[in-house]
Amino acid sequence: MFVVGLTGGIGSGKSTVADLFAEQGIALVDADIVARQVVEPGTPGLTALVAHFGADILSADGSLDRAALRSRIFGAEQARQWVNDLLHPLIRSKMAQQLAAAQSPYVLWVVPLLIENDLYRQCDRVLVVDAHEHQQRSRVLARDSRADADAIMARQMPRDERLKYADHIVDNSGDVEQVKAQVQLLHRRYLSEAAQKRL
């Protein structure tokens, strides 16, 4: 399978770009979605979290109350590490299953920390979605007015450093038509490169 790893800073517009590829019939494997799937009711992930932290991390409907879990691990490095040690292997395993099962000519692997977690090494191409930092900040605040956009951005790899890893870049600082045009060009390129790989 030809794997295109898609990443970018928070508020860069990764989801917008990923959706445009999906409209072309390309399968998506999204790390954020998988992270929610591995803690759905009835999963080993949620069962282990409840056994460790107690049932008060559950919502009334039996699903994980993410805010409750965050409050339990906030500032508690050992607890946060325990959660990471539990969930990261589950997430990676499920992503590997989904990548292997993808039926499209190539697959788009959407991972916010693709570079930071060294997952880019498993990709045939790295696609970085880029936007000006003031745009990233305003997009984050539009989604969550309480978010500390500067603190979140400071924890991520610097924009200039991230771009060094890119095989291709989608500039998401313009309007959606400009972004669509970039995606269509890249889509044709990836179709051709994926076909070459299969030869």
TrEMBL record:
Subcellular location: Cytoplasm
Pathway info: Cofactor biosynthesis; coenzyme A biosynthesis; CoA from (R)-pantothenate: step 5/5
Keyword tags: ATP-binding, Coenzyme A biosynthesis, Cytoplasm, Kinase, Nucleotide-binding, Transferase
Record field: catalytic activity: 3'-dephospho-CoA + ATP = ADP + CoA + H(+)
SUPFAM superfamilies attached to this UniProt entry: P-loop containing nucleoside triphosphate hydrolases (SSF52540)
Residues at which ATP binds: G11, S12, G13, K14, S15, T16
InterPro entries, sorted: Depp_CoAkinase (IPR001977), P-loop_NTPase (IPR027417)
Molecular-function annotations in GO: ATP binding; dephospho-CoA kinase activity
Keyword DNA-binding: no
GO terms for cellular component: cytoplasm
EC number, UniProt record: 2.7.1.24
EC category: transferase
Cited NCBIfam families: dephospho-CoA kinase
Family per record: Belongs to the CoaE family.
Function: Catalyzes the phosphorylation of the 3'-hydroxyl group of dephosphocoenzyme A to form coenzyme A.
Protein name: Dephospho-CoA kinase
